[in-house]
Design brief:
It contains 14 helices and no strands. Helix 5 runs antiparallel to helix 6, helix 6 runs antiparallel to helix 7 and helix 10 crosses helix 11. The radius of gyration is 20 Å and the shape is globular. About 80% of the residues lie in helices and about 0% in strands. The protein has about 325 residues and is mainly alpha-helical. It has one domain.
Length: about 325
Amino acid sequence: MSNLWRNLILALGLGVAVYIILSVIVGLDDLRTAAANFEYAVVPLILGLVLLSYVGRFFRWMYYLRILKVRVPLATNAAIFAAGLSMAISPGKLGEVLKSVFVRQVNGAPIARTAPAVVAERATDGTGMVAWGIIGALAFSFGFGVLALFLLATVVAIAVLRSKRMSLLAEKLLSRLPVVHRFAPHLHAFHESSNELLSTRPLIVGTVISFLSWGIECVAVYLCAVAMGAESPFLVVVFIFAVSSLAGAMFFTPGGIGVAEAGLAGMFVSVAGLAGGIAVALTFVIRLATLWFAACVGIFGLVVVRYIIGGEGSVGVVEAAERER
């Protein structure tokens, strides 16, 4: 558990450093002026929409577990999913394998069996967000090339995960390496689950759910812009949010910190034509609503899971998750 809190504190420290740098670049006076004009009455609606988007993703998680024939009581599963959001600050959110460790604690399902559900979530997050990015790019005469690269990277990753040849090669390589050789016997189960979850039908269903969930979050992000007084069209905001989020995931920094903020602030100035102070203030608000709010919900979920599973048991689960990563 201590490692979990340490990682969260490190991510928070990195975030604060990035925000300080951006604040200095645009000037504190301009930033204070922009923040003072923010309509705080809209905050409950913004956070409500973000929570609703998490509900959509929870249905996707349940859909994947049903495909894998893994049963978890609804309330417990909801708490496990919420706890996974605490890993929003992990690189590519892959730390959400924590959910698989909790599932193992509840019903004994091997981590290698359910961890591909987390990978499938990230894959369909990519396809769903690329779809929104393409829609947003309709407002411009550019952007399609960048989004095509993101889509290509996602397709290649899915193809590699489904490849039997790559799975056998990875198993052979891991078996020869010190320390990590113990993971080699689990690759067969991991590959089987990946094949199930990334086959055509689950991939389409997962992408549709992702598209709808991200759409709700895009509305929340647009409301952030409205509350900030930024007069930017919906599609422009969607494009900027999609590209910045995808870039943050691809560069694998914790929670996309640094990359996503630079993308948001930079494109709000260069693409949307906003003043520097408003662009940076809006970036802060969006990241608070989409990244740090998720981490807070995740911490609450961890507390609930600890209560459901049992204090000592849940500590062991978290420590096991840290060892798995």
